[in-house]
Design goal:
Blueprint (H helix, E strand, L loop, with lengths): L1 E8 L3 H13 L3 E4 L13 E2 L8 E2 H12 L5 E4 L3 E5 L5 E5 L2 E10 L3 E3 L7 H4 L4 E2 L2 H4 L7 E5 L3 H11 L4 E6 L8 H8 L4 E5 L1 E7 L6 E6 L5 E5 L2 E4 L3 E3 L29 E3 L11 H21 L4
Parallel strand pairs: 1-2, 1-8, 2-5, 8-19, 10-17, 11-12, 11-17, 12-13
Antiparallel strand pairs: 3-4, 6-7, 7-8, 9-18, 14-15, 15-16
Helix pairs in contact: 1-2, 1-7, 5-6
């Protein structure tokens, strides 16, 4: 079993930042991430609100972060999934792939899992007309007719990106008004090939081997209608990625990790940063700040417990 001073779970903006700070402190670090570093950045078309970057593709910012992390030789990288976490003060144990790793401190930056609509045939049609990533799959629908489900920032951001590719876009939101920031609402309202559908819920997917159409039901009346579509993009929220965590970890009613201002959880030597935390604002800028704070708090913990 390999032992580290710190293990970072997740390589989104919070995790990469935490690993970089820990590496600069000179401690031994492992970062565990099944996918390519970047987290949800890789599914974000454009970043316009990150300080110092007026505009950048999500994957470009993710690549820059990954390249910076790669400079540090005292960071071991595991492209695996954490399936079990046994918190033991001073030597937390994690099941990573087929191996066990041990760490004096752990920083959880495992991020979010995108929610699905929960409809019959949704899994079967995923990749065959149903998608959860505009940047990944948008180019397949150039000059076609697509739908987008959602009303938050992510839905409107992705809809605006898709609108530059597709012939016609229908945006469905279950409420009578969007929850997204006003800047996004203004932009989407001015996009000529976008039709807004409020109080509208997608209740059925039609198609055998690929999506052909959807049924849309009104939340304000008994009306339903059949609508042919070439593709449907779903952005209806996220859930915290915490299947591997012990029941003793304190979380809020929605499953997000509760921490103090120094990113400390209720478990000794265990910290959390980024979208996985219980908080109001989930942005790249806040994730980076929390990653730095968690790394600093972990280093202080190592010093105070004479672990380094």
């Amino acid at each position: 079993m390999k032992t580290y001073d710190a293990i970072v779970i997740g390589a989104g903006p919070a995790g990469v930042t935490a690993a970089i700070y820990l590496a600069r402190f000179g401690v031994s670090v492992a970062i565990v991430e099944k996918m390519t570093p970047g987290g949800l950045l890789l599914q974000t078309a454009e970043i316009e609100n990150y300080p110092g970057v007026s505009s950048a593709k999500g994957y470009e910012l993710a690549d820059t972060m990954a390249a910076q992390l790669a400079k540090y030789s005292n960071v071991d990288k595991y492209q695996e999934t954490v399936t079990l976490f046994e918190p033991i003060q001073g030597r937390n144990r994690l099941r990573v792939g087929e191996d066990w790793l041990e760490a004096k401190t752990v920083i959880i930056c495992s991020g979010l899992i995108l929610k699905k609509l929960g409809l019959p045939d949704e899994d079967k049609l995923t990749g065959y007309g149903v998608s959860y990533c505009a940047l990944c799959d948008g180019h397949f629908y150039k000059d076609k007719v697509v739908g987008v489900v959602g009303g938050g920032n992510a839905a409107l951001e992705e809809a605006m990106y898709l609108a530059t590719l597709v012939k016609e876009l229908h945006l469905f939101h279950r409420r009578g008004a969007f929850r997204a920031d006003k800047i996004y609402q203004d932009k989407i309202a001015q996009t000529p090939n976008v039709t807004l559908h409020f109080n509208a819920v997608v209740t059925r997917l039609h198609g055998q081997s690929e999506l052909k159409a959807i049924t849309v039901s009104s939340t304000a009346s008994p009306e339903s209608r059949f609508m042919p579509l070439d593709g449907l993009f779903v952005f209806v929220g996220q859930t915290p990625a915490l299947d591997f965590m012990p029941a003793s970890l304190n979380v809020d009613k929605e499953g997000y990790i509760i921490t103090d201002t120094e990113m400390r959880t209720n478990l000794h030597g265990v910290f959390a940063a980024g979208d996985i935390r219980s908080k109001l604002c989930r942005q790249v800028a806040t994730a980076v700040g929390e990653g730095a704070t968690a790394a600093n708090a972990a280093y202080v913990y190592l010093e105070r417990t004479n672990a380094i």
